[in-house]
Design brief:
Elements (H helix, E strand, L loop, with lengths): L1 H9 L13 H25 L4 E7 L1 E2 L5 E15 L2 E4 L5 E6 L6 E2 L4 E5 L2 H43 L5 H40 L2 E3 L4 E6 L6 E2 L14 E4 L4 E8 L11 E6 L2 E18 L4 E8 L12 E12 L8 E4 L4 E3 L2 E8 L2 E6 L1 E6 L2 E6 L6 E4 L11 E3 L2 H9 L1
Parallel strand pairs: 1-24
Antiparallel strand pairs: 1-23, 2-17, 3-12, 3-16, 4-11, 5-7, 5-10, 6-9, 7-8, 9-11, 12-15, 13-14, 13-16, 14-15, 17-22, 18-19, 19-20, 21-22
Length: about 425
């Protein structure tokens, strides 16, 4: 009996006893949960309030067309080139006497650009003119002698018939007449040669004047008064070979290099749209002029000439960088179809299984889901989700969320950070 009672008493709960001590594992779990909560609260405060996360931004560029929908089947980069460009030089070697051009000056065809010292050419012309006068004087002398010889021969011809003079005298008079006729022909030929020499000397004087071969704009001035210029390169490097360089601005076009794998998409006469690096918002229509039938073995590219419909525009100058889109005409675009845009690849992030970008609006960001198109170098074509002119965050951090507060970094600060 006592044993059973003792067993029952041992099963009773002693409510006055102290609670057992907690285990260390539970303590560490609690501290970890509290730490995560503090970090989350701090991140929420940083993104929702305070100064905000410092970010870099870039502008989204619209690349769509209005009116008709022309899909770009290929994009390539190249440079503006001039089909008519000439480095003008003198035809003779001489010292520059006068320069009449400056960079940026418009010149007309035949306009005088420079003059060389004409001392030698003038002296040669004077000599040729004197030789011509001497030849003409000789002609007059021979003509006078011939006139007398012809009269003497005619007189002796009548006397020899009457047997008043001998046949020998008559024959001698005829021979003198014929000799003078030959001398006259020679003198006339010498006069013609002297005349040709004078004409060549005149050309030599004219060659000291440098004229524009066509109308254009001077882009380089290569000589100064007192320098020696020559059409051929002279030894020592002290002789100029040109007066200046002229470009016909109406002959400007774009030359791009297209990869061999894509050249089949390009056809002569194909419509194009060119954007100059200096004027990103200016889209210049044009067409393919020609595909150069030769490939570059080292770069595996083919050169393509692209014409511009804005010839003569002062904003287009040689050697400008350009991006050309080769277009394929399709049916007219619907009025409610929005044009595509070009966004930096660094602005596109992944949130779950979606491509998104963060658009800066004031001091906060808005998350946009994107529909992406082609990859164009370091940029991506965005078909839906962004509009031209919007500012997007570059390299958004993983903690950046919709509605977060941000601060746009200044360009000088970003440059200093990159230098460090």
């Amino acid at each position: 009996m006592n044993t059973s009672a003792d067993l029952l008493n041992s099963l009773k709960i002693d409510r006055a006893a102290p609670p057992p001590p907690p285990s260390r594992k539970g303590l560490w779990i609690g501290l970890a949960v509290a730490g995560v909560a503090v970090l989350a609260a701090g991140a929420f405060f940083a993104l929702r309030g305070g100064k905000g996360v410092e970010v870099r931004t870039a502008e989204v560029v619209a690349i769509g067309n209005g009116g008709t929908a022309s899909a770009s089947v290929l994009d390539a980069t190249g440079y503006v080139v001039a089909r008519r460009m000439a480095t003008v030089s003198a035809k003779v070697t001489g010292k520059v006497r006068e320069i009449l051009i400056e960079e940026g000056q418009h010149v007309e065809e035949g306009q005088v650009l420079a003059r060389l010292d004409p001392v030698d050419a003038d002296a040669q012309r004077t000599l040729s003119a004197s030789q011509l006068e001497a030849a003409r004087s000789q002609i007059a002398s021979v003509q006078a002698q011939l006139k007398e010889a012809e009269a003497n021969a005619a007189r002796l011809s009548a006397l020899v018939g009457q047997k008043l003079v001998s046949r020998a005298q008559y024959d001698q008079a005829v021979a003198s007449r014929d000799a003078l006729r030959a001398q006259l022909a020679t003198a006339q030929r010498n006069a013609q040669v002297a005349s040709d020499g004078l004409r060549i000397a005149d050309n030599g004087v004219d060659n000291t004047i440098v004229r524009a071969p066509f109308a254009g704009v001077v882009i380089a001035k290569a000589a100064q008064p007192g320098e020696i210029v020559s059409p051929l390169s002279a030894g020592g490097g002290y002789t100029r070979t040109g007066i200046g360089t002229i470009v016909d601005m109406n002959s400007l076009e774009v030359e791009v290099e297209v990869g061999e794998a894509y050249i089949g998409r390009v056809k002569p006469g194909m419509p194009t749209e060119t954007v100059l690096n200096a004027y990103q918002e200016w889209k210049i229509p044009g067409k393919v002029i020609a595909i150069i039938p030769a490939a570059d073995r080292g770069k595996a590219t083919v050169r393509v000439r692209v014409g511009l419909d804005a010839k003569g525009d002062a904003r287009i100058v040689p050697d400008m960088g350009a991006r050309v889109g080769f277009l394929e005409e399709t049916k007219p675009a619907q009025a409610d179809v929005k044009p595509g845009v070009l966004a930096p690849g660094a602005a596109i992030a992944q949130r779950g299984d979606k491509d998104v970008a963060f658009v800066v609006a004031g001091d906060k960001v808005a998350q946009r889901a994107l529909k992406l198109g082609r990859t164009l170098g370091d940029d991506r074509e965005v078909l839906e989700g962004l509009n031209g002119g919007e500012q997007v965050v570059l390299d958004p951090p993983d903690t950046l969320a919709d509605g977060a507060r941000v601060t746009v970094a200044r360009e000088d600060s970003a440059a200093d950070a990159n230098n460090e």
